[in-house]
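Hi there. Long-time user, first ticket. I'm pasting a complex I've been working with (about 1001 residues overall). I'd like to know whether the download I got is complete or cut off, because the file seemed smaller than I expected. Thanks.
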Amino acid sequence: MKVWKLYVVEDHPVTRQTLCEFLERIPGFQVAGAASSAEEALRQLSDLNVDLLLVDVSLPGMNGIEFVQQLSQAAAPPRCMMISGHDDINYVERALAAGAAGYLLKGNPDEVVDGIRQVLNGNRFLSADLAAKRKSEMRSRSNKGG
Amino acid sequence: MERDQTSPGGDDPSSDETEKVGREPKTREARPTVVGIGGSAGALKALVTFFESIPQETGMAFVVVVHLAPEHQSLLPEVLGRAAALPVIQVTRRIPLAPDHIYVIPPGKNLVVTNSHLSVAEFQGPTGRQTTIDYFFRSLASNHPDTIGIILSGGGSDGTVGMKAIKELGGLLLVQEPEEAEFASMPRSAIGTGLVDFVLPARQLAEMTLELHRMGHRVRRYCQVEEVPENEEAILEGESRTVRLFVQPADREEQATQVLVMFLETASPPGPIPTGEEDPRLHHVERELVQTKERLQMAIEDFESRQEEYRAANEELQSTNEEYKSTLEELETSKEELQSINEELHTVNQELQYNLNEVTGASNDIKNLVEASDLAILFLDRELRITRHTPSLSRLFNVIPADCGRPIGHVTHRLNYPQLQIDAEEVLETEQSIERELLDTDRNWYLVRIIPYRTIRERVEGIVFTFVDITRVKQAEEQLRRSQESHRLLVAGVKEYAIFMLDAEGRISTWNEGAERIFGYDQEEVIGRPGGILLSEKERAVFEEELEQAQNQGESVCERWYLRRDGKPFWGTGVITLLLDSDENRAGFVQVLRDNTLRREAAEALEKSQRELRAFNETLEQRIAERTAEVEGKSRQVHQLASELVLAEQRERHRIAQMLHDHIQQLLYSTKMRLAMLRDEQWPDQLSDMRRMAEEAYEHLTVAIQETRQLTVNLSPPVLRDEGLVQALEWLIHQMSDSHGLRVKLKAKADIVIEAEEMRILVFHIVRELLFNIVKHAEVEAATVELYEDSGLLRVDVSDKGTGFSVEEVFGQRGRHGGLGLLNARERLSLFGGSIQVESQSGAGTKISLSLPIK
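Hi, the file is complete. Here it is re-exported in full:
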């Protein structure tokens, strides 16, 4: 069975610790490392062969979206799953535009494993709340436009 | 002329005498050369010309004989006297001939020369032809053989016979050029004799006379001068000698009458007559001769007597002929005279006509003048009979044009004038005019003027009455008198005003009752005293200035303190007016015054209180200004504080939101993950409660996370911080739709920019509050938000079609709906100078309008 190597970028130490322990316990997942800032992650990532990065949107210094944007410039960029307490659709759109493959709301741990698996399988994943919200947003925009 | 007619020259020698004297031997040397000048019609002009050229001293005596009308005084002496340098004497009695005199024939007489005296002789026959020249020349020739006879212009042939006599006795003859003469027949007749020496114009006649006299003309007495060709010799043969004469003009340019005569040589005298010898036949012949001579003598005598008879007859015929000629001439002269009289009459007639026209014009003028003036005029003669009157007189007198000639006493009139006749007689007597003012029966006043009627020769031929209606003048006088009296009474009776007059020297001349009351002086005390006594010493100079101003400008306003008799001052106001007499000279002044002391005091009090009021007002205004500045400062502070408050609130919201997000949510999420791990543990059955409790805690945390997330957003919408108001409102609308099911329609232009963040925040929060209110109270699912700019104001309308509410109730009860109620919104808006308007009715929806200055 393939073990996926994950990397966590999260400034809040409790969340970072909990997230790492949570993911370690999932069969097939291996937490390759964690960083408290984008800058720290960039220093470590070159040595690691990471399959997926979980990136907090709100980071001190370079924020998560800017970080993803920078990573996506690389030749073989790793898959990125945004993880955030902000359910603002604007953030979601900007993250997707920057190259993120998924956006997890910090709120429902049950989505985490499934979401990561989806992304690792090459799919895009949005938390259920965001997906619904985005759908209505799209509808109202198309209404306004129409 | 009558005198001449009535007094013939009785003491003068008669014509017979003259004849006799004429044959007397001549004593030439003692006498002056006499020049006799004859003429008739047209001779006067020639005489004037002639004598103008004769100087004062010539040594000659000139005797002028012309045909004069016997009945008329002759003006010849005066006329010649003016023209000639020599004295002119009209001969009226025997007088000696003196050189350098001109003697003139009197009218109606003949003139003769006897023994170097001139005298007058009776005219021969009234109808006879004029022979005065012949008569005179003959006497002249016999008395003065060296005379010069001159014939000038004239009709007829008088003088011709006389000239022959002059010539025969050795005188010289000159005749006026017939071409020049006005009447040529007399000169031509003289020239016709062939005896005339020179024919010349009048002026040259004078020059020639002088020349001949200067040269002496003895030569000419002896020789008959034939015409001598110029520059040639001529032989002159006289009684005793013959001379050769060479004649040459003195100057070729001059008239040929001025000649140079030269005697060249004396011709040989004729030889003595040879005497023959005695002869015997001589006696016979002598006898025969004597006989023949006697017969011849008889024949001659016979012949002579016959010839004498013939001559007498001839003379008679000639005389008759001459008479006819003379008569004809007289008739011509009369005709000429008549013509001249006719012309004179014509002139006189014209003059008279001219005068008549003037008189007629003047008469018309007077007539029109009298009628136009509407004057009643009455003319009376010396007997007081009406001679003439103007039509207007009939207003006063019962006269008709036919009344002319009636005595004035017979005519009735309407005037109260019993002494009319007495006055008329007095004027006639004294020749002084009289004037009276009289009333007629209708009580009209008339001015009656009676003047003597004077003719041009200042004789009083009658009298003239003029009646002028002066009723209106009288009435005007009466009115004036009454008006003056009422004015005087009015002025005197005025009590509130002091009215008094000052004469030209500034002394008081009138003083009314008001003046007595105000000043306290009686009339008797002030009349005649200077106006200055009414003022204090200090004010007198100003009073003089006021008088001067009134003098210059006609009036001056005076407001000052005056002095009463008791020394108390009072404040008088009024005017001084200049009075002028009829010649525009200063007659004095009138001053009108009123005691305005009380008014002045009141005015002063008023002014004082006004001053105080003004000062108070100024203080008040200053204080208001201070307060206003204070309030403005406060207002600025409040505004600043409000901004600060909004921003602080927002900062605080943001801080709380951040804390919720950055810490609490992280912790909640971590806890949830750990509960998930705990839940998913392989729990033994006896510990199944652990799983269930973990599951329940997990669910609680899910809700808690959702709530805090919502709270975070609500506390500080990220869009509000990062983007514009319109974008924030769009976000809000989504929120309302997602969270509360309210569909909100936003009408806004995307380019509305509000620089101040606090404003954006304020508007956003208020709109959100209003939308929440709609969600909570309106019971509708739709609302509209409209955003627009209107002249520096941001306007936001939030409206719905819900249940509506009572505006009074909402504003009356503070914060009834909790949170940011409408009242709260209003207060916060007002801190930024904004306002809120609510239109709502129960059941008819609500429209809430915000307006906020954004510039």
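A couple of notes from our side: Chain A touches chain B at residues 12, 14-15, 17-19, 21-22, 25, 58, 85-88, 90, 106-110, 112, 133, 136-137, 140 (CB under 8 Å). Chain A has a mean pLDDT of 89.
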